[in-house]
Amino acid sequence: MRRLFKSVLFVAVVVSIMTSCVSQKKILYLQKEQMADSVTSIEYMNKRSFDYKVQPGDNLYIRVSSLDKSFNEFFNMSNSNNMSSGSGGNSSGNPAIYLNGFTVSDEGLIDFPYAGKIYVKDLTIDEIQQKIQNIIGEFQKETIVYVKLGVFNLTILGEVARPGQYQVYQSDINLFQALALAGNATDFANKRNVKIIHQTTEGSQIVRVNMNNADILENPEYFLKPNDIIYIEPLGIKRYGFTSIPYSTIFSAASLLITVLTFFMYTSK
What we know:
It is a single chain. By secondary structure, the protein is α+β, with helices and mostly antiparallel strands. The chain is built from 6 helices and 10 strands. The strands form 3 sheets. A 5-stranded mixed β-sheet has the order 7-6-10-8-9, with helices on one face. Strands 2-1-5 form a 3-stranded antiparallel β-sheet. α1 (2-19) packs antiparallel against α6. The longest helix is centred in the last third of the chain and has 21 residues, at 247-267. The radius of gyration is 29 Å and the shape is elongated. The N and C termini lie close together (11 Å).
């Protein structure tokens, strides 16, 4: 009986430890970096190429500068009061971005002063800028057109501290910056198999990346696209696991086990 008692206790402790903690291999970012002993830094090549093609619902910030004072004031006033159906506002996010921007309609159009309705769907920011520049140039010489993506929408779901939809007011963002917005991934996040859902002209595309590996820095998916959805699945151990060894739980279970076995030892005599 004593031998059985020791065997059961040993197995209980071993199983509790093995199933109750997440290894650092599953927690740490950027592992296996290709760093030699004599080198203190290493460069991962991943040139940012912002070739995103504008889609319906995107918000564009467009500004026209001209040497003609009256022409310049007209566009500044138009941008400030832009509330037309083709370039309406939005109640979410920073109101100034929407009020001074042009929202692409479902038909892929924006309604721009002087130029009228302009088809911008599936065009890059540079292509839109050049298109508007050519149209405005027919009315007024010596003008400069600036076009930027007004709002960079991201949705971050799954094993993060603060899942939700985020709006970034900059031209680009990488995967680590996005996770920082959501308060970082939890210890139960499956960083080896992070899903990124891109919105394409045909529908949606799912890609998977491994954030545990430093090679992510050279992956084209390291830089996100507007309207991307990031989903981080939980590790299977989350059903019954702990991020660290739960000593109090183990000792409580062991004490209970000892009590039960002691009771049976005495009653079986």
